């Protein structure tokens, strides 16, 4: 976190974002707890609207979005809400994480309307990273 453009905030995300100026952030990363009890609001429309308000045009959100094997209905609800709120694009992505239940964790990748964001084409594809491939094999 030595880049002067980066600010890390740890705390109540809902309160922090409610108090943030409109259009301030290029990106917001939400690594929240499971949506149980008081954390339920982290998967509801007002929370995503608050995030969208805090993002600049073309700003992006990466939001923890549960396992596709265990929480399909929740993911569908979140996708539906985010497609209403984020007009620049909404995608579900997942990664293998052996320590998570089912071994998979998901993410919502959302973009506010503005400059287009292409989530499907990597900025730095693995083929361009020195040492990522060996002997021409991937």
From TrEMBL:
Signal peptide: none annotated. One of its GO terms (biological process) is polyamine biosynthetic process. This is Spermidine synthase. The active site is at 31 (proton acceptor). Gene3D superfamilies: Vaccinia Virus protein VP39. It comes from Triticum aestivum. Residues 1-112 form the PABS domain. The lineage of its organism: Eukaryota, Viridiplantae, Streptophyta, Embryophyta, Tracheophyta. The keyword Transferase applies. The keyword Iron-sulfur does not apply. Keywords: Polyamine biosynthesis, Transferase. GO terms for molecular function: transferase activity. InterPro entries: PABS (IPR030374), SAM-dependent_MTases_sf (IPR029063), Spermi_synthase (IPR001045). Belongs to the spermidine/spermine synthase family.
């Amino acid at each position: 976190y030595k880049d002067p453009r980066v600010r890390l905030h740890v705390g109540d995300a809902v309160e922090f974002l409610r108090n943030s100026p409109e259009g301030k952030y290029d990106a917001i990363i939400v690594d929240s707890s499971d949506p149980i009890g008081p954390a339920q609001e982290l998967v509801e429309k007002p929370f995503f609207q608050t995030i969208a308000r805090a993002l600049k045009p073309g700003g992006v959100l990466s939001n923890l979005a549960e396992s596709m094997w265990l929480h399909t209905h929740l993911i569908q609800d979140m996708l539906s809400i985010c497609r209403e709120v984020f007009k620049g694009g909404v995608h579900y992505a997942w990664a293998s994480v052996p320590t998570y239940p089912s071994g998979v964790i998901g993410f919502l990748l959302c973009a506010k309307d503005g400059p287009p964001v292409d989530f499907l084409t990597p900025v730095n594809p693995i083929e361009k990273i020195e040492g990522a491939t060996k002997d021409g094999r991937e």
